[in-house]
Amino acid sequence: MSKYEHEFVHMMDGVEKQLETIDNPRHQKILRNYRRHALLEVSGRYKEILSPDMTVEEPVYRLFEDGQSIVLDGMDAVTNFYQSLAETDTLVMWTGKSDFAVSDSGFSGETLFSQFVPGSILGDGVFGAVHESGGSTSAAPEQSSGIDSDGWYLVRRTLAFVWPYDEQGRLIGEHVYEDSASKVVTKVDPSESSRQRAQRTACPTARNAPAVSAPVAIVTGAAAGLGAAIAERLAEDFGTLLLLDIEEAALADTAARLESLGVAVHTARCDVRREGDVKNAFDVAASVGSPTALVNGAGIGVFTPFLEITEDQWDNTFAVNTKGSFLMCREFVSRTEGPAAIVNIASIGARLGGDMLAHYGPSKAP
After folding, report:
1. Chain-centroid distance, C-alpha 242
2. Is the dihedral of CA 95, 96, 99, 104 positive or negative?
3. Which stretch of 68-77, 270-279, 283-292 has the lowest confidence by average pLDDT?
4. Alpha helix (H) ranges present in the chain?
5. Are strands 240-245 and 341-344 parallel, antiparallel or unpaired?
6. Which one of 81, 206, 299, 322 counts the least CB within 10 Å of its CB?
7. Where residue 203 falls among pLDDT bands split at 50, 70, 90?
8. Does the structure show a pLDDT above 50 at 67?
9. pTM of this structure
């Protein structure tokens, strides 16, 4: 492994350490997004960076170098810029030692930024040259003295940056400021600078980086009672909750109370007896993050003497308690990747039984 490949693989070590010390879920989402962004970038996979789970619909990049500014306003402009980077083979760029701070609005700091650049477009400003070239290496800027237009160069400089993120932990844009006095340009062996070599080295690391989507905890029967209490406890460990119930008014009240704790709360009306409702609920979950925990808190059990339990009452009890948990678990497992947890709730009546809960016990039996 060359020294540059070693830098590719280890450029996120500082972020990894910082993630181990941060408890704030929103800050964790931001750092995970940044980590994956950087690894995908050096791997040449810019289209994944601009996917809806990582970047807002209309990002704005502001790049300042060599006294000049470039403003890329909107997804089309940002996409075209990345495409130009790919076409000019200048996508192999990575960070070195970094110092930054994270807040609810994003992060800012300073880093040593490195990038391989072909001599044919190497001018005073790398980003500016790429932007002006539109992806063509024939539209070269005026060459600095001693630059080999057929050669490859490593450009290192210190960059200050501010990257804002939205409440879902998605990138809003990049604000990048170059310390032009720190720039060092060194000619390198073309074999060291190839995008293919960087992809081979960094792609496995990018694949293994955890998804940036927010972990989502899903709670059924969350409008009141035990389900609402469970949701409140999960709010201590999850930054995003999806609360499900058929009682929409009570569900909205619970959601408002939990949102006041600083948690992103989403709700959906869900009759767990109906497969369509269950699938719709998981579509909502997928739109806001990655389902990571499921608590089946929905359940019914009306005290009724055994001889007075009707067939409809029996069927409905099993439809909610047994079928509902089955549908939720099946959908959760089909949509979940990586570590996850399912908790099915039952009262002591599921173990003790009794003539007043003869329908409830079997429907919740462990």
Report:
1. 16
2. positive
3. 283-292
4. 3-10, 13-21, 25-42, 46-49, 75-87, 126-133, 195-208, 225-234, 248-259, 275-288, 311-318, 324-335, 349-352, 360-364
5. unpaired
6. 322
7. very low
8. yes
9. 0.53
Residue bearing tokens 């909502």: 284
Can 34 be counted among the known catalytic residues?
A: no
Q: Which amino acid is at 226?
A: L
Q: CA–CA separation, 179 vs 242, rounded Å?
A: 45
Q: How many Å apart are CA 333 and CA 140, to the nearest integer?
A: 53
For the chain, the residue count is 366
Q: Which residues pair with 62 in a beta bridge?
A: 71, 175
Which residue is catalytic, options 4, 46, 61, 360? 360
Q: What is the pLDDT of residues 93-137, one digit of tens each?
A: 788 877 789 999 999 999 998 888 888 877 655 555 555 545 444
* Dihedral pair phi/psi, residue 284, rounded to 5°: -60, -45
- Give the pLDDT band of residue 2 (cuts 50, 70, 90): low
* Sheet strand arrangement including 240-245: 264-269, 240-245, 215-220, 290-296, 341-344
Q: Cβ distance 253 to 260 under 8 Å?
A: no
